[in-house]
Sequence to fold (451 residues):
Amino acid sequence: MTEQKAAITITQLTRYLKRVIEGNRHLQDVWLRGEISNFKRHSRGHMYLTLKDEQSRLQAVMFAADNARLLFKPEDGMKVLVRGQVSVYEPYGQYQLYIKEMQQDGIGNLYLAFEQLKKKLEEEGLFDPQFKKPLPAYPNKIGVITSPTGAAIRDVFTTIKRRFPRASLFVFPVHVQGELAAPAIVKAIETANALRQVDVLIVGRGGGSIEDLWAFNEEKVARAIFQSALPIISAVGHETDFTIADFVADVRAATPTAAAELAVPHLHDLEARLTDRLTRLALLMRNKLVREQERLKALERSYAFRSPLQLIRQKEQDLDRLWERLTTRMAHHVQKTNTALTQMDRLLFKHHPESQVNRSAKDLEHMTGRLTRSMAALQKTKQQSFRFTLSQLNALSPLAIMERGYSLTYKKGTIVKRVDQVQVEDELAVKLTDGSIDVKVMKKKGDNLND
Fold:
């Protein structure tokens, strides 16, 4: 007798393995290093990917709630560090990793996010030089968006007062690091644009780590700078620090002090420039005066000033000559115009509608005469032809023959030509020249009609 062994279903086995894996605490919080392949983002935001190394592969999923905090975009070929829990996906019967955290392996997350946002905004044209606004040459009011207690505001204030004391500063105090920094900077830029009380804006802060400066790498800050109607100078960190704000701003300054120097001219430079302009203006005026004096002397020595009466007489002669020439040309022009008018009048008379009507009336009269004569000739010809035909018809008419004593005999409408067409007692109609008579056949003879 065959031994009957107990069997379980695939579902039972899969659920058993799932419970075993999920019961292992070492598999519920595990860090893995691998390379991403077959990356796919679902329309609902979930990420599906495969993690692999030189010898193995592992299916993984990162749900939208977990990947919303990622500062970079995963892609195929990217090496990452992931943290998650291992479980079994029952419909496929395969184990997979449910990722809770993901980091770029070898490159910092912030740097990766920086590069990705920079590439995105550059493709949208936010760095395009054509959108850069020029700075005002002599700004009277300068807005500074920075921390009111930082070193940056002191550097900006000191530099501007030293270089251009007449300029006024308006400080828009904001947080320059932390989660509240980016919204505060965006709001300050929008407020400055709405108030329209400054000529230029300086947005920045002193140096720090990339995390400290990160607010100036936020996309919302970049877009607020791009949409600003006021020209903006970015001044974030030190000369070696580059942020997204630096690329979007109209002018990038290496430091807050450099931003202040770019915003206003130096008073000494203006004074030196003014002195130079005054010197050049005085020189130009002196040279102009000398030239005009020499010109006046030349005019005084001219023929007009030495013999004005003779010059007037000469001009009178010139006037007479020009007047004569003008008169001659006017007469010639009038004659030419009259000739043209006469020619046009002849043409107008030739083509006048009344002349056309007269000519048409004569043509009509001529054609009517020709038509009348033709009709008379045709009528005469037709009359002659009619008389000839009528005489021929009269000659051939049965009535004419009947006038000589002949008659026509009909039997029931049919003319009788032979004796055998009638029988005794038949009723016949005899047609004469002046009428007809009805007769009845009493006797017939058909042997010899000539008897």
In short: The chain is about 45% helix and 20% strand.
